[in-house]
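not sure who needs this but someone in the group chat was asking about CBS domain-containing protein from Streptomyces ambofaciens so here u go. i didnt clean anything up, its just raw.
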Amino acid sequence: MALGQLPARSVGAHPVHGTVVDAMDAAGPQVWYDMTVEVALSVMAAARAEHLVVCDEDARCVGLVTQARLTAVRDSSGYTDRVRLADITDGSQPFVSPSATRAEAEDAVPCGRLGPVPVVDEHGSVLGVLALFR
């Protein structure tokens, strides 16, 4: 293999065995939880990202927001331009340990929860995102 080349990886290929590190994708853009929804939507559009990882003041992951979630919040009747990501990310979202297997990760996530789930280390730092499809 030549320097600078990486082996091809199928987008849909997620190993059944091993840990979630083998199947996770890059975390993508990380933003602070005091950012407003409007600014987060702008960051997401500029980065052409499907989600944003939300971090607290200590750079610990507190959740993940998708464009669909941000748009739903913005379009809700109670929305004001002062709504911050901290207001919609309460830390109750599931997180996955990098040492978990894919099966363990799927078992740990509430039934019906689809989409990206942050993979975080013991310090709360995001390492990547695991996409769950059921």
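also Helices lie at 37-47, 67-75, 85-88, 102-108. if thats useful
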